[in-house]
Design goal:
The chain is an all-alpha fold. The protein folds into 2 domains: 59 residues; 63 residues, no CATH class. Helix content is 70%, strand content 0%. The longest helix is centred in the middle third of the chain and has 27 residues. It is flat and about 50 Å long. The relative contact order is 0.08.
């Protein structure tokens, strides 16, 4: 059985599922009450859910108007599947290699996957981004990334 969906429908489904999951976890945050620390995540989750529902309704109405237009079959590119595999490997190795080495390797592989030529540019990019994120969280925000 083939499923026929266009890109907008795929994005709508992802947004709906993502907003529901985000809203579920935002309700589990500590600090309930009228103006607790979970208020902003709950508000943003509700707004995301409302926007994704409106977007889905608009797409459905547009699809009814343009019913003669042919839908495309869902196509996944090979590099997107490789990206998901890299992400899973990153999440598996993150506790063992700590933040800096695992993130440098992950960003380096992504840069190579998406077309950076050579080794020097992807390496400089991955080291710079990783150390920049580490500095922002560790030094400026005082959030320890070593606990990951």
């Amino acid at each position: 059985m083939k499923v026929y969906m266009n890109n907008q429908q795929i994005v709508n489904i992802i947004l709906l599922i993502g907003s529901i999951v985000y809203l579920y976890f935002s309700f589990k945050l500590p600090g309930g009450g009228p103006a607790g620390s979970s208020l902003l995540p709950v508000i943003s989750g509700v707004l995301l859910l409302i926007c994704s529902i409106v977007l889905t309704i608009q797409q459905y109405k547009k699809q009814k108007e343009d019913s003669e237009e042919e839908d495309t079959i869902i196509k996944l590119e090979k590099r997107h599947l490789i990206l998901v595999a890299y992400l899973l490997l990153y999440l598996i190795f993150l506790p063992y290699l700590t933040f800096i080495p695992s993130t440098i390797i992950f960003l380096f592989l992504i840069a190579l996957l998406y077309g950076f030529k050579g080794i020097v540019k992807p390496l400089i990019l991955s080291v710079t981004i990783t150390l920049g994120v580490y500095y922002i969280f560790q030094m400026l925000l005082k959030v320890p990334l070593d606990l990951i």
